[in-house]
Amino acid sequence: MTIASLSFLLFALAAIVICQTAACLSWRPARDFVFLAFNIGFLWTFAAGGWVGFLPMAGFVLAGYAAVVLLRANRSRALFLLLLILPLALFFWLKKYAFVPRALWLTVPYVTIGVSYIFFRILQLVIDAGSGNLGGRFGLVSYLNYTLNFTTLVSGPIQRHEDFSQNEEHPRPVGWFTGGSAVERIIIGFFKVLVLSALLHEWHKQSLDILAIRSAPADRIVASAEALIGYTIYLYCNFSGYTDIVIGVARFLGFELPENFNRPFSALNFMDFWARWHMSLSNWLKTYVYNPLLKGLMARIPSPGVDPYLGALAFLVTFFLIGVWHGQTWIFVLYGILLGVGVSGNKLYQVWMIKRLGRKEYRSLSAHWAYRTAARGLTFTYFNLSLVCFWAGWPQISDICSRLSWGGAVAVAGLIWLVSAVALEAWERLRALTLAVQIKQQPLVLSRYLRTAWGTALVLITIGMVSLTATPAPDIVYKNF
């Protein structure tokens, strides 16, 4: 089932009506079982090979449940390490990572949708159970609803178990304000996915078509820059649009899902960028990888002078793992290296600048508009280049590089930096000016009337786009990860 579709909205509406009816009648167990039925029903829409296709995923999910139950009964370190390796091994096997021998792969078709995000939920439960920090309700039905929650199954966001458990125990009430806000998020999400990401996806493809033909060097440089920029903004609109839709739907079910984006292209450095992009993923890894790793390194090397460098090393490892998680092939090892080098290099640069200029002077330099403009463009450019791993394999990357030459590749990066730096600075200033126009001590653009008019316009534009276009909108990108 496609998330940005009428069928998903009807499915979600049925789940909302029946689950909320059970909640109003205080049928708590019935509500949980009804929600589980909808979660399994949603998963069934991705069936591959009939019910047999669900067996590998079912084994993965139930193995996670068994691991948590065992760790709650016995928190020995040896058992914890063994049961921590179990979901990792099953995940690599089910996703057919390149380093897993092909002889071990299953040859029958089976469902893998959502496995990457189920993996994080199971791993969190295992870690928390092993450390004695697993709180909230925990039973088989609650566990299945948490791991298979249809609002977060396909591509997250990654909700912490304690937050889900709290919402499950005390669903958030839906009033006029929260309901209206949820509808607005859904409308914006559909507009991003069905209109903006569709147009940007087409722009990206057309740019690649231009690059593929023999053309002048300047045309190849411009086409390459357009392909890179187009894909980055397309990915943002596609993924953040999906997130808007599921956050809005979840609110009607009483769940408050974590945000995944916070204006990432406004980031002034790569560390700040990852605090704004795919936030539920980076926050999860910060809690369960970065912090424990850094703590362990500092315990082994108890020297305050090297702490910043240990932090850079912990960033390198953490973001390398983020890259590898995104895909099974070796191209995502490159993506992990690019992310790790970007964030750890950013950290080392800050350490060097503070030592050279002093904390106060460096903070003053960072606040200067010219520095901000250049830094924002550099951050956007680096992310553009790293995202090549998402849409191009080794042969295509090699072909593009051969068409550009090293000088052309440098020119592409320079062009992206120049355009993005100017455009993003102009956007930030326009946004500030717009928010400065206020009525009744509130920005005019955020008033109820303008938001209602804007939402109505987006609905009409989206319906018109879907009705007039002959090609379906692109699917959710992160559905493949």
Structure description:
- With 481 residues, the chain is mostly helical.
- The chain has two domains: 164 residues, no CATH class; 173 residues, no CATH class.
- Helices cover 73% and strands 1% of the residues.
- It contains 18 helices and two strands.
- A two-stranded antiparallel ribbon has the order 1-2.
- The longest helix has 43 residues.
- The radius of gyration is 24 Å and the shape is globular.
- The protein starts with 5 loop residues before the first helix and ends in a 13-residue tail after the last helix.
- The model has no long low-confidence stretch (mean pLDDT 91).
List keywords for this structure.
481 residues; mainly alpha; 2 domains; two-stranded antiparallel sheet; 1% strand
In short:
The chain is mostly helical. Helices cover 73% and strands 1% of the residues. Strand 1 and strand 2 (442-443) form a beta hairpin.
